[in-house]
Design goal:
This protein is α+β, with helices and mostly antiparallel strands. The protein contains four helices and four strands, in the order βααβββαα.
């Protein structure tokens, strides 16, 4: 199985907050939620800015009978792509340690280790 996710940023409230943005996802009592409501409300194109395309694919799965020590095992391919006009580029995964930077910076590596321990 795999999925692609198109990720968009929503325009913030005038004050920079998110209360109004979150409120766009709450229909009024007299509104029915359908595709028209979504397109005219929280998914209105003018209020969204494309951020990235994300891929999450399970590329292999070993059943528990074959991989007895883990009760089954799976491997995933995760990628993020930026699209700018006709140009597509791979972006770093969010919330993933920068291993090259950690290898070069002992203090940064120590801070990460302290954070993980707490």
């Amino acid at each position: 199985p795999f999925n692609f996710s198109a990720v968009y940023n929503a325009a913030p409230d005038v004050d920079g907050g998110c209360v109004g943005v979150a409120g766009r996802w709450t229909p009024q009592l007299d509104e029915s939620v359908d595709a028209g409501w979504l397109i005219g409300g929280p998914l209105e194109r003018t209020a969204l800015t494309f951020k990235q395309l994300e891929l999450n694919a399970q590329v292999v799965r070993f059943p528990s009978g074959q991989e007895t020590e883990f009760g089954g095992q799976a491997a995933y391919l995760m990628r993020i792509f930026g699209i700018d006009g006709a140009a597509v580029s791979e972006k770093p995964l969010e919330n993933t340690p920068d291993t090259a930077r950690l290898a070069e910076d002992a203090a940064l590596k120590a801070r990460l280790a302290d954070y993980v321990r707490t």
